[in-house]
Amino acid sequence: MDMGVRLVRGRRSGFVRRRVGFAVLGVTMLLAGVGVRAATVQLEAVRDAVLYENAAGLVANGAGEFLVAGRTNQGGGSRRRSLLIFDVSSLPAGAVVTGVEVQLHAQTVTTADLELGLHRMLTAWTSGGSNPGGNEATGVAALTGDATWLHASAPGSLWAVPGGDHVVAASAVTMVTGMGGFVTWSGAGLVADVEMWRSDPGGNAGWMLRSDELSGQTAKRFVSADSADAGLRPVLVVEFTVVPEPAIGLLGVVGGVVLLGRRRRGKVE
User: Fold this and answer.
1) Measured between alpha carbons, how far apart are the two ends of the chain, in Å?
2) What percentage of the chain reaches a pLDDT higher than 90?
3) What is the dihedral of CA 236, 127, 164, 230, to 10 degrees?
4) Euclidean distance between CA atoms 214 and 72, whole angstroms
5) Fewer CB within a 10 Å sphere, N or C end of the chain?
6) What are 231-235's contacts with CB under 8 Å, separation 24+?
7) Closest to 234 (Cα-Cα) out of 58, 65, 91
């Protein structure tokens, strides 16, 4: 799926000009030509996948309608984890990220309330064409390019640790109930992840959605990036500010004004 980018809003804040001495005037003139811009963008997930606990790594879901995380009663209460990745390269150079939210649309699932965390992934992965259909609780046979419990990309690329290589501590955690509707993760951990990926795009392997996986019949289901309903797909919301670099011409004007002022005092150096 191609990346979707939507500019939500933008605003420009002005600078107040005050004449406080000659040198300060030059600085004020410089700042008057610079606008601090604040904006928010929404980025759709470029791909996602579900990992189904399976000792042989034979089960996958790379193109289904849903993401699943938690434990189910199928397969002896085996674990489910989901992966998703967003391309943040469209953020402008010089942007300072001030806020990040991940928004997923939960389907109504009558299981216990569950805390789910987003964990930064450490290994690149791919998603194939496997599609279980139905409620996608059990997955289907893995295809080439699928991520599985054992594979970052089947059949040849393995995780270092079965279940997917990820940071143990969650970047953000939120409580998911059985009510359905949009669920949001936010906080400084997600901001740090996005800033890291901007400075090192090759290190962007996305996030894993998982629970503590201690109790059975807790799995939650969310709409995936492959859903036919574009309005319910996973979204990354990024708030940022940008301070444009000052124009060289403006610097020249400021320097000229300062020099002229010094000549009028008869102290040309």
Assistant:
1) 64
2) 65
3) 30
4) 11
5) C
6) 232/105, 233/44, 233/45, 233/105, 234/44, 234/45, 234/48, 234/67, 234/84, 234/86, 234/102, 234/103, 234/104, 234/105, 235/42, 235/43, 235/44, 235/45, 235/102, 235/103
7) 65
- 147: number of Cβ within 10 Å: 31
Asked whether the beta carbons of 29 and 21 are under 8 A apart, the reply is no
d(CA 118, CA 123): 15
Cis peptide before 234 (omega within 30 of 0): no
Nearest to 69 by CA among 186, 220, 236: 220
pTM beyond 0.90, yes or no: no
Which amino acid, 191? V
Pairing of strands 207-210, 235-242: unpaired
CA angle 224, 226, 231 (to 5 degrees): 70
3-state class (DSSP) for residue 56: coil
pLDDT band at residue 216 using 50, 70 and 90 as cut-offs: confident
